[in-house]
Amino acid sequence: MKCFQINPLILNVIFIFTASVTVIAQKSSSKLPTAEDKNTFEETEGLLMVEAENFFKQSLSEVRQWYRTTNGYAPVAGNDEDENHSSTAKGNSYIEILPDTRVTHADTLIRGENFSDEPGKMAVVHYNIKINNPGRYYVWVRAFSTGSEDNGVHVGLNGEWPEHGQRMQWCDGKNQWTWANRQRTKEAHCGVPHEIYLDINEPGVHEIQFCMREDGFEFDAFILTKDAEYIPNEVQETSSSVSADSEGPPPTIGPPSGRIAVVADGNSPDPDDLGGTAVSIALLRAAGLENRLVHYSHSCDLERVERISKAAERERHALMQSACDVTARRWGGFEGLNFYDAKWQQEETVQNLGKAIEASSEKDPLWIIEAGEPDIIGMALEASDTSKHKFIKVVTHHPANDDAGDFFTWQQILDFGVEEVRIPDQNTNLKVDLPAWDWAENHADPRLQWVWLQGKIAENDNVVNFQKGKWDCSDAGMVLYWITGATNGGLEQGTVSDVKKILLDYIEQ
Predict the structure, then answer these.
(1) What is the pLDDT of residue 105?
(2) Parallel, antiparallel or unpaired: strands 168-169 and 293-298
(3) Is residue 244 part of a domain?
């Protein structure tokens, strides 16, 4: 099978009509970008690529709609357990069918609501293309799938939905943007390669449509090619390809002035704070900065959601307390610090964080790491001296935390007069395949083995499926950023290799 690199000149999208992008309000109170005029994308030498957000309209959107996600914006449109994946999407933007109510196979399948095996019935996006070389065009789509119920879509031509445009399927390449051309059949549920195609027999302008098969489908781009053996070739398609064994010295430790506080969740559906907490505590100790940590709280999701049962949430409280207490004891240096359960010890947590806020000054600011919902931060700010707020810096990396508050919005946090310190999504380099942490699992030092175990427990958690096969310490990326300088040259996109070097450098001293 031949593999060709896409020529950027060939893939240049030619706009026949100039369109001004507008934003229109949707029934869900979210915002959906569309275009007033019809953009037309032109095929050249049998090849064409279009980014998914460049549709000119959508239709049949009463039950499910396509919503655009970018680095700075994530829609609020009902249930959506996935993280924001725009940092690795083309143009840092993609579209997703929401709400997403069938996340796992155990969730009820409702035809005509969260599933449509019949194409052209729900959530259709439309693209105008100009074909200069008619013939059979194979359709490749770049999608992000986290499970078994968000990995199917249909493609059609000029309002028709031919058999070989139906049931496009993804099984491989989970938790990363993946190009595929596979058709699901009764015999091959993961799809038959190279069986998704459209016969475009006339030159000129045509309309390509994509429609829902499963809600939660994330769509980044599509390619039309006349080459039956064509395979999209991309370098470093996913964050999991980042090496954990890069050579070089460990990052320079050089934190800013002031103290650090961490407010984490862990009792919400995503268990990633188990690994994130263990790595954060280990990094602070390895950097010799354990005495600068003045507050650590976990389980800051104050209102349980239905995606996690009461029993599972209780289990998470215990696991998070263990991740805090045992990591701190084994690594040492945190003997005078209490680790608070923010939900079960809400009053004490708010008072403790408020006390740290009250102690802040120009020379001794407080850096608050927002590793979960913002409510505890908001409550502590609300209860503290407003004259101290100008000395507070809140570090964030993901709108999934910012926008998840039950009592405070992110804007309300900023309205207290604190400084927002926003860094890129840390999932890009710190949510990796399990083998990237083999070095810790197999190390002789029990402290490293313990850290590895916390990430493995999270991967083995059965509440969500998007952590399967992953070791995720993404929130610890904010601590890594702080210990390496924060706004004065701190690592904004730290890697597992950086974490490894810092921890091993300390262990081997």
Answers:
(1) 74
(2) unpaired
(3) no
What does the alpha-carbon distance between residue 399 and residue 417 come to, in Å, rounded to a whole number?
A: 19
pLDDT in tens, 26-54: 333 333 333 333 578 999 999 999 999 99
Question: 322 and 289 in one domain?
Answer: yes
- DSSP E strands: which ranges in 377-467? 392-396, 419-422, 431-433
DSSP β-bridge partners for residue 152: 169
Q: 445: burial class by Cβ within 10 Å (0-12, 13-18, 19+)?
A: middle
Instruction: For CA atoms 289, 405, 268, 310, give the dihedral sign.
Output: positive
Asked if 467 contacts 457 with a C-beta cutoff of 8 angstroms, the reply is no
Does residue 461 carry a pLDDT above 90?
no
In a domain, 2, yes or no: no
Closest CA to 279 of 402, 456, 146, 401: 456
Strands 431-433 and 93-98: unpaired
E-assigned strand segments in 293-424: 293-298, 339-341, 366-371, 392-396, 419-422
Number of domain units in the chain: 2
Q: What's the predicted TM-score (pTM) here?
A: 0.57
- At residue 370 the predicted structure's pLDDT band, cuts being 50, 70 and 90, is very high
Cα(399)–Cα(389) distance, integer angstroms: 22
**Which tokens go with 245?**
């064994």
pLDDT-derived band of residue 120, with 50, 70 and 90 as boundaries? very high
**Three-class SS of 277-309:** HHHHHHHHHHCCCHHHEEEEEECCCCCCCCCCC
The number of helix segments (H) and strand segments (E) in the chain equals: 11, 25
For residues 192 and 285, membership in a common domain is answered with no
Domain of 208 in residue numbering reads as 21-237
